[in-house]
Structure formats: C-alpha cells, structure tokens
Amino acid sequence: MRRAFTLIELLIVISIIALLIAILLPALRSARVSAKNIQCSSNLKQLGIAQFAYTGDNKDQFTAPLQWVWAGAQLSDGSPFPLADFKDPTDLTGVYEGTLFPYVNDVTDIYLCPIAADRITPDTFKPSWINDRLARNYVQNWNLGPSGVYPDVPWPREALNMGTVTKPSDLVMFTEENSFRIPGYSNFTMNDGNLLGRFGSGGSPNVDCFASFHNVNGNDLTSGDANAVFVDGHVEYVNHREPEFYTWQNPDTGTNEIISATVMWCTDAIPVDR
C-alpha cells in the first residue's frame, strides 16, 4: 500500500523549500550583479583595445571624443549629420557611425554596461531621447584626441595622443556617465559621447562626472562607482566623490582651480592623489 504525504509533512517540505529559496536568492542576486560588473569591465577593456588599434592606424592619435560615436559631417549613407539627434544615447545609429565601430568587429553590446541597462530607467531620460532603453552609456575622456566635428569648441582640452600622455596608469580613456544629474557634482546628464570635466581655466568641478550605479549604498544610485579603462589598458573603479574637491594652482594661468575627482582622473596635467 502506497503511503501519501500528510498535510503536516507537505507543509514542512514547502517551508524548507521556501527557507532555502530565501537563503539562496540574495546570493544568486549578488552573483548576477557580480557577473554584470565583470561584463562591464570586459566591455571597457575591449573598447580600450579597440582604441589602441585605432591609434596604431592613425599615427598615435586617439579617436576624437566627438566622433568615436556619431562620427562625421554626414552619415555613411551620405545623409546629413543629425545635429538634433546626435546626443541621444538611446539611438544605436550613433554607435554604427562612430570611428571606433570597425575596431570592435561591429559589436554593439560592448557600448553598454548591463547594470546601466537595468538601473537607468526611462523616467531619467531626457524628453528628446527617442527610445525606451539605452544603446550606450560609455563616454570618452574629453582630453583625448583631436576636436573632430566641432573644432571651435570653447572648452579647454589637452588634445592628448599616445605619445604625449605622461601618466597612462592614472588617465581615464573610457568610463561611464549617468543619465541623471548629481547635484553639486554634475550639471548635465549623459547627453553626448564624451566626459567633460570643466568649462574654463577657472575650474568647474561639476560639469560632467563619473557614473554612480556600481556598488551602490542601498538604493541610492548616486552613492556608487563607475568602471573606467585607463590609457595603460587596465580597468578599475573610479568615484566622483573621492578624493573630494581640492584647490590646484594652474601653472599656465597662475589661478587656483577647484578640482573634482573627475577632473583629476581625466586631465593629464593635474596630479592624481592616490
């Protein structure tokens, strides 16, 4: 005669399963986040390798920060450059048209951190953004390469190439930017393909800043870090708050500038305090 489970036994089994799920779910969630962090680091590593290949073909010049995505005065099909749309990070056309795209074997996925895709939601998008998800969230350091499409931009930049960088292990090449502002640190959301640390020689620590959605404290997406690949090819976390603002005397102007962490990591002329 077959013996069936009693109701009490069945409830005990269900309770044990529920307990195991409750124990395992945080570990599984943490494992998923870790896997996405690793994928983000890998994406940036590949972009760094693509940049090295590009410099090898272009006399040590980095891609222009205004052309590594949305590259030219006209698109590859001959149509006019879309000035109204070129800043839109939900438009994959910008990836296809960038100067770096042929150097990543035409793979689009490496332009977007999977955590950014999850955590940056449509309610943070600017109204002009046309799609309901990001196509890219990585940005190039404004100080690398020639100006590109807009040669007369008023913002100071070093226009560095591989041969003129003095501290490759301290200089960010590509990193991540938020689609939302952090008051006191960023005036703008992720509105283009580059990271601009300051407007003028007098200093502007709160123009753009590193993203903040890795390793967050609770649900505060402004508390975390960004991944970044450096000019020497290594990848590590950077934080817009560390070190805090400090005063640096610009040797070219003799004026004191209030420097943020973003400016320090993205400017070759400014010493990084590790």
Spell out the key features of this protein.
7 strands; 274 residues; 10% strand; alpha+beta
Radius of gyration: 22 Å
Strand content bin: 5-15%
Distance between the termini: 74 Å
Q: Please, what is the average pLDDT?
A: 84
Walk me through what this model shows.
The chain has 274 residues and is of the alpha+beta class. It contains 4 helices and 7 strands. The chain has helices spanning 7-57, 93-96, 114-119, 261-266, and strands spanning 138-141, 172-176, 194-195, 226-230, 235-238, 246-249, 256-259. The strands form 2 sheets. Strands 3-1-2-4-5 form a 5-stranded mixed β-sheet. A two-stranded antiparallel ribbon has the order 6-7. A hairpin with a 4-residue loop joins strand 4 and strand 5 (235-238). The model has no long low-confidence stretch (mean pLDDT 84).
Give a short synopsis of this structure.
This protein is α+β, with helices and mostly antiparallel strands. It has helices at 7-57, 93-96, 114-119, 261-266; strands at residues 138-141, 172-176, 194-195, 226-230, 235-238, 246-249, 256-259.
Detail the topology: elements first, then pairings:
Elements: H1 7-57, H2 93-96, H3 114-119, E1 138-141, E2 172-176, E3 194-195, E4 226-230, E5 235-238, E6 246-249, E7 256-259, H4 261-266
Parallel strand pairs: 1-3
Antiparallel strand pairs: 1-2, 2-4, 4-5, 6-7
